[in-house]
Amino acid sequence: MAGTTLERGAAEAIAAGRHGDPFAVLGPHEVAKGWEVRAFVPGAERLWLLTGHSAAEAAPYPGVPGLFTQPMPRRDSYRFRAQGHGNTWEFDDPYRFGPVLGEMDEHFLGEGTHRRLWQALGAHPMTHEGAAGVHFAVWAPNAERVSVVGDFNLWDGRRNPMRRRGATGVWEIFLPGLHQGTVYKYEIRGQDGTILPLKADPVGFGSEHPPANASVVREIRGDWQDADWMAARAAKQAIDAPISVYEVHLGSWRRAPGNRMLSYLELAGQLVDYAADMGFTHIECLPISEYPFDGSWGYQPVGLFAPTIRHGTPEEFRAFVDAAHRRGLGVILDWVPAHFPTDAHGLGRFDGTALYEHEDPREGFHQDWNTLIYNYGRVEVKNYLVSNALYWLEEYHIDGLRVDAVASMLYRDYSREPGEWVPNRDGGRENYEAIEVLRQMNATAYGECPGIMTVAEESTAFPGVSRPVDWGGLGFGFKWNMGWMNDTLGYMQKDPLYRRYHHGQMTFGLVYAWSENYILPISHDEVVHGKGSMLAKMPGSPWEKFANLRAFYGFMWAHPGKKLLFMGQEFAQGAEWNHQHSLDWHQLALAEHRGVQALVRDLNRLYREIPALHVNDCRPEGFDWLEGHDAETGVFAWVRRGRAGDRPVVAVVNMTPVQRSYRLGLPEPGHWREILNTDAAAYGGGNRGNLGGIGAERVPWHGQTQSAQLVLPPLSAIYLQQD
Question: Of the listed 92, 187, 433, 457, which one is catalytic?
């Protein structure tokens, strides 16, 4: 071709958007006599090369509209001026810039060991080779061509095809002139030439407001004011610390006028102040990684690295976490590595192949949720998930991750019939690859971010969930006690007349209470899908419903294990949770609801202040039954102990609607003060009890050398502490 060295086949491939190596064609290239600059600018009728104060008009490539070439005596920085359809515009040539990713990035990306993957992939505003712009990088190893598209290039995948980084499967490009707030997606051409649906960035830091779903360039770095919290965090999250978690769906905790969701900044004031006033130690957020469907509550995430824009920007989410820390509250995020939705803009068949998921639906499709399951055995996918966990802990100072649906990850036959699953290499049902992902996540999280906590929602008896990885466990800090939750709620929903036949449901949890580091969860799952509210579960008259619930909370807070309540349960909301509306805060105008709220506030205060109630939550030396077998009267009594020298607490619970005069053995002589009575008038009760305390008598009872005659109000819990 006269005047250029560019071959027609390459020129036509660029114009058709099917060239897999655009940097081999476009930009400056050394030729026999100096350099040649090539540019493809669809819509341009004329193009000038601007160097310093000179402008040289480039030659159109014959037969390929929009493609231009121009000789240059030596390599120099330059810009373009284009003219077409009556418009003139200037811009930098992306193809004159070298790569941003270095050899070490390429090495770690290639072997799937880039611990901070988000620092390499995603969209990063930066100054590169003297120009301000955005660097994009994405993993799509089986693509023929990958382009960044957006309003800035008319969503035309031919304009900004990316550079392939060797065998890593990563594509990258630096686009000068772009900035934070730029909306973008990736256009991917599969190996068969098919143009896939436009994809959001798997490592994107922001997203458009749903139902729009493009990625948005966002800065994630910022200033923190939480140094005091971070320094003290480890002690506040240890197994001997008081941990009482307030689980929250940010979109429906409270709504603004017009049913608008609150912003992160509004939540930083209202929610943080409320949780602190209620005495909770942590706020746990249902998933906030970007998700397309409101009805999934975040449990079907698409943007694992993007705080949902429903409440604001990453900067504003950071302000929410910072505000919580400055009030002494930890922040736990629900994290979902078990599956992802099939939405066309998401991870499914990302580069035209089963990249993040398994090809075989027996391994890669979740029948319960119509979602896709990660291919945990692929090193890049494992790297993606482990790095994502670390991202939230490091970049957003998150204090803990509650990992959703762990049981579905551990077993290949989870919710599957015979023939619907693929056994492991030993013919068994355990998912070795998923187990390794969880272990590596925990080892990395605890190793890189001392003082954090991880929590497993795991509903089976899989051994060692909260045992360290180097002891053969999964490495979680805590595990939700789903068995305790199911048993105790099953008991509480029964008419007290029949509870005597189910007494063991309340005591069985102590048989295995020390097998894991347990959190006692009364979560969102217990107040949805027709299960009714906590108040609605309780039997009896309206007064008995409230008394039952107060007694249950008294039982729960004195029971070994950390505590968790879902929002609304702390004031006995009457209706089942609805994610589309605010909690029924108006019910606090009623004394019964205010009473339950006051009880939970006092339970949290006692739990935090009294070592006997929390130091040995996870150790057997902190618990002794006084009476665990009195099914006929529905009474339970036990001792909680802390460290040597800490005064013990005796808890007595009467789960029948009958007031009882009850002799109770006591572990120590002297006067025992009634520090809590759920029947107190302040909580909505009948104000029956023991006039503030009792004196121990030298009457052996319940295996103790002393005892006292107590008044046990109907449907109540009483705490006694030795003066």
Answer: 457
In sequence order, which ranges of 311-459 are alpha helices (DSSP H)?
Answer: 314-326, 361-364, 379-395, 406-410, 432-448
Tell me: pLDDT of 541 over 70. yes
> CA triplet 572, 245, 650: central angle to 5 degrees?
80
518/459 Cα distance (integer angstroms): 12
Q: How many CA atoms lie within 13 A of 497 on its CB side?
A: 3
- Considering 144, 404, 526, 627, which one is annotated as catalytic? 404
Residue 166: pLDDT above 90? no
From CA 273, how far away is CA 288, in angstroms rounded?
20
- Rounded Cα gap, residues 307 and 309, in angstroms: 6
Partners of 693 in beta bridges: 673
Indicate the pairing of strand 145-149 with strand 623-627: unpaired
Peptide bond into 71 cis (omega under 30): no
Q: The pTM is what?
A: 0.96
Spatial separation of the C-alpha atoms in residues 285 and 657, rounded to whole Å: 36
Query: pLDDT by residue (tens digit) across 631-668?
Result: 999 999 999 999 999 999 999 999 999 999 999 999 99
Q: 321 near 307, Cβ under 8 Å?
A: no
- Contact assessment for residue 289 and residue 311, using Cβ atoms and an 8 Å cutoff: no
Residue with tokens 């077998």: 629
Q: Which two tokens mark 426? A: 């030993």
- Residues 470-495: pLDDT tens digits? 999 999 999 999 999 999 999 999 99
Residues above pLDDT 70, as percent of the chain? 100
Token reading at 266? 């509004």
In 3D space, the residue among 70, 3, 75, 21 whose CA is nearest the CA of residue 41 turns out to be 70
Q: How far apart, in whole angstroms, are the C-alpha atoms of residue 590 and residue 601? A: 17
- pLDDT averaged over every residue in the chain: 96
Whether 244 shows a pLDDT value over 90: the answer reads yes
The CA distance from 152 to 159, in Å, is: 10
Where does residue 648 fall: left (phi above 0), alpha (psi -120 to 50 degrees), or beta otherwise?
A: beta
Using the structure block, give the residue that is written with the tokens 């030596």: 74
- Asked if 510 and 487 count as a contact pair (C-beta separation under 8 A), the reply is no
Task: Please compute the mean of the pLDDT values over residues 145-167 and round it to a whole number.
Answer: 96
CA 553 to the chain's CA centroid: 27
Report pLDDT for 1: 46
Question: Residues near 376 by Cβ (< 8 Å), separated by ≥ 6?
Answer: 382, 385, 409, 431, 433, 434, 436, 437
Does 404 qualify as catalytic in the annotation? yes
Average pLDDT over residues 159-184: 96
Backbone angles phi, psi at 639, to 5 degrees: -110, 135
Tokens 């879902």 label which residue? 566
Query: What is the C-alpha radius of gyration for the chain, rounded to an integer number of angstroms?
Result: 31
Question: Angle at which helices 432-448 and 379-395 pack, to 10 degrees?
Answer: 30
Verify whether residue 436 is a known catalytic residue. Answer: no
Could you report how far apart the first and last alpha carbons of the chain are, in Å?
A: 99
Locate 318 and state its tokens.
Answer: 């950071």
**In this structure, are residues 345 and 258 in contact, taking their beta carbons and an 8 Å threshold?**
no
DSSP state string for 511-536? GSTTSS-EEEEE-GGGGSTT---HHH
